[in-house]
Amino acid sequence: MEIPQERTLVTEIPGPRSRELLARRDAAIPAAVFNTVPVFARAASGAIVEDVDGNRLIDLGAGLAVLNAGNAPASVVAAVREQAERFTHTCFHVVMHEPYVELAERLNELTPGSHPKKSMLANSGAEAVENAVKLARYATGRSAVVVFDHAFHGRTLMAMTLTGKVMPYKQGFGPFAPEVYRLPYSYPYRCPAGAPPESCGEACAAHAIDEMEKAIGASNIACIVVEPVLGEGGFVVPGEGFLPALREFCSREGVLFVADEVQTGIGRTGKWFAIEHEDVVPDMVVTAKALGGGLPLSGVTASAEVMDAVHVGGLGGTFGGNPIACAAALAVLDEIEREGLVDRAALLGQIALDRLRELADRHELIGDVRGRGLMVAIELVEDRASKQPAKAAASRAIQECYREGVIVLKAGTYDNVIRLLPPLTIDEGLLTEGLDVLDKALSAAAD
Q1: Where are the alpha helices (DSSP H) in 240-340?
Q2: Is there a contact between 75 and 328 (Cβ–Cβ < 8 Å)?
Q3: Which of 271, 274, 265 is nearest to 292 (CA)?
Q4: Are 139 and 309 in contact (CB under 8 A)?
Q5: What is the DSSP secondary structure assignment for residue 213, as one 8-state letter?
Q6: Strand pairing of 144-148 and 221-226?
Q7: Rounded to an integer, what distance in angstroms lies between the CA atom of residue 325 and that of residue 79?
Q8: What is the pLDDT of residue 1?
Q9: Could you give the CA distance from residue 211 to residue 416 in angstroms, rounded to a whole number?
Q10: Going by C-beta distance under 8 Å and a sequence separation of 6 or more, which residues neighbour residue 359?
Q11: Distance, first Cα to last Cα, the chain
Q12: Cα three-residue angle 113-116-120, rounded to 5 degrees
């Protein structure tokens, strides 16, 4: 259903109906299943979420980077309805269907590189990451996997092991998967190599390569798994040269380079895939989130040689590549192409970055502004000299935002980053209004 694309508050947030549902939620669902905004959705479209009390909130979170094409675009809804009326499930391993094949073809075409590629489909980012590691180990005959600080790759066993942050993702859930090695990520604002921002990429790459050679052994490494821009880790754009140097190492040593594009992919950063900003062609690309437009779907795309290395029956799952999810994904890709949303992400992202930098001139809380495309963030600090993370202030600012009808999300290893990733379809005026609210929220958080 179409909802007016305007912020409207008719009750306090949360309103009475949401509070009733919160009580039911607390009685029926464990607290471990966390929630950011204490409201319940009644409907949503575009960049507006309407709650059960009639409040309309500006969505600068896009369902955790899922709604790149907006919430419930008519073309995606129509594709889902049409496919559901034909059939809802066959299991691709039992009876094949064309949407799976067509989506694999589209991913093979869209992902970086002109080499022959093949794709498999799964249900979530974590499941896709798990399959990428399986593929890399099988194809190389090696066991070691290299990941990086501040990474988030999912909540299943291998994906959780690859994830860098202990609380809340790993605490109490061990033991973890073996043969996983973690190295520093290039984080220019807090460079682990102690280098200035402009040389952080090269310094961190040199350290990582040295560690891989001397402490792991290049001949033991099946793959590195890396986010081209950190997602949950705080929207960190790596320093110049970091990823290309890792790509060169992988090519030289027969290590597979896996780009985790679960949060960064499908146009979010102003290119179809964030790794394209680095002029790097990965060996594997992992996709999810925005791919399905709100339906559970993920993919792993790799060279045909790597994909065909695995024996028959070694990859798959009951629901992977569900026909309704595939139909939605094909409609999402069409919508992004038809509406020019990749270029729009770059345009709106620059507008957002410019505004956030202006906010940084006035708010001492803001230590860093960063991002690519419409994947932007501010890192809050107690003071700019020490860079002490301002965790409590970030939480207060986020609460002030949703109370004023704007959904923003927290991120970062230190819980001090406010990230913005609205639908790529958001109206510029609505984006500006949301940033106005964030401006006021930062003032309130500093008091």
Answers
A1: 242-253, 304-307, 323-338
A2: no
A3: 265
A4: yes
A5: I
A6: parallel
A7: 10
A8: 73
A9: 29
A10: 366, 369, 378, 435, 438, 439, 442
A11: 40
A12: 95
Q: Determine contact, residues 374/270, Cβ cutoff 8 Å.
A: yes
Token pair belonging to 54: 């009639």
pLDDT digits (tens, 9 = 90+) for 356-384: 999 999 999 999 999 999 999 999 999 99
Query: What is residue 2's predicted lDDT score, i.e. its pLDDT?
Result: 82
Beta strand 366-372 with 375-380 is antiparallel
Structure tokens at 401: 């935002």
Looking at residue 209, what is its pLDDT? 98
Give the CA dihedral 393, 201, 179, 143, nearest 10 degrees: 140
Reported as a single tens digit per residue, the pLDDT across 209-243 is 999 999 999 999 999 999 999 999 999 999 999 99
Find the angle CA(246)-CA(248)-CA(252) to the nearest 5 degrees.
Answer: 115
In the three-class reduction of DSSP (H, G, I as helix; E, B as strand; rest coil), residue 129 is classed as helix
266: left (phi over 0), alpha (psi -120 to 50) or beta: left
Please give the single-letter amino acid code of residue 274: A
Dihedrals phi, psi of 113, to nearest 5 degrees: 105, 140
Length reported for the chain: 447
Does residue 58 contact residue 421 with C-beta atoms inside 8 Å? no
Whether 135 and 128 have beta carbons less than 8 Å apart is answered as: no
What is the model's pLDDT at position 312? Answer: 97
Under 8 Å between Cβ of 58 and 404: no
Task: Collect all residues with Cβ–Cβ distance below 8 Å to 166 and sequence separation of at least 6.
Answer: none
Residues paired with 410 in a beta bridge? 418
Q: Any residues with CB less than 8 A from the CB of 362 and at least 6 apart, and which?
A: none
| Residue numbers of the chain with a pLDDT score lower than 50 | none
ω into residue 178 within 30 of 0, thus cis? no
